[in-house]
Amino acid sequence: MQPEDLKFDYEHIWHPYSSMQAPSPVFPVVSAEGVRLRLNDGRELIDGMASWWSAIHGYNHPVLNQAAKAQIDKMAHVMFGGLTHPPAIALAQKLVALTPTALQTVFFSDSGSVSVEVAIKMALQYWHARGKSEKHRLISLRRGYHGDTFAAMSVCDPVTGMHQLFQRNLHAQIFLPEPKTPFGEALWPEDREALENLLAAHHQEAAALILEPIVQGAGGMRFYSASYLGYARQLCDQYDILLIADEIATGFGRTGKLFACEHADITPDILCLGKALTGGYMTLAATLTTQSIAQTLSSGEAGCFMHGPTFMGNPLACAVACASLDLLLQSDWQARIAQLQQGLERGLAPARAYTGVADVRCLGAIGVIELKQAVNLPQLQPKFVEAGVWVRPFGKLVYVMPPYIISDEDLSQLCQTICQVVHDWA
Prior knowledge:
It is found in: Cytoplasm. The chain is 37% helix and 17% strand.
């Protein structure tokens, strides 16, 4: 990669949440292997982000490489309208088998944000088909985050969800206070009352409650009680409100359960999956729901579900996803996630003593250092790179969600380096 390439990047290419006036620094990656990213200048970084939580098996995995190579010689893509193919059928079979029994229908889409759009449209079209079009609003949690497309933005926290600029353009939704009860504790009265009072007040206009089960991700990396999730399911049943679980970040083992809903042993009415679905190889998402919801909305005015992405059910992505799921399930992933949690708790513990640190918390393969002050990303990010690790802080948070295959030695080095940089910074 030549200097003129980076100059072109700087002047012409948008990166996530970037300014074209003063772009944050970007670091050129030329290859990736296992848990290491190799930069253009030869430096190697231990990856603590799993490419925004998706590359659970690490990079350049031979099994996933082979799945992609085998599929691409057959067909990389074919439209899903009026056609089907073995990779999509195989992946749908796996997802139906892995998720709660009631979730029997699968809608494939391109990204997690779109899977949320699909879930919201499913809920709205379901109530329209039942003759209750007045149920047209969503209930969401403060500090929640569900993506960057318009319906998804409308159910993100209107203050911390990064989308305040668009508030006048978004459908007005209903927001619950974020859960206060910590993970592992019985539901606090204030959370119980807030849930019941709001659902009781708005059930006649509420189509669904959408939430990230157990872990609120980009809204603050907050871990909350499974009792909250269980009570939310109970109240949704009581008040005839659908429950949408956004497991895009938490699905496929990240919290120590295959799906975070399992911590409360509940079944959502609609489930959103993405990120780790293909092991970080291809963009793909899925929205699952029940036969009852699928049949009801299909019997409505439109006679079908009104959505159909061009790259829906992409064969290449589906084939890699099948291989990724097999790779995960054939491993002792539960023991590995437990081991990662122990390593993160041990490795990040020193940060609790730093004066600039407000909290350190870990759950499954998630480790979080919460600072007392927001970080300056353009200043802090290069310090991690110089120290040989890749993490991407935001707000007051320095957090890691490493690939599951990271060795104990690399995890220890990752945590030690993060603690040192945070110590020097804070």
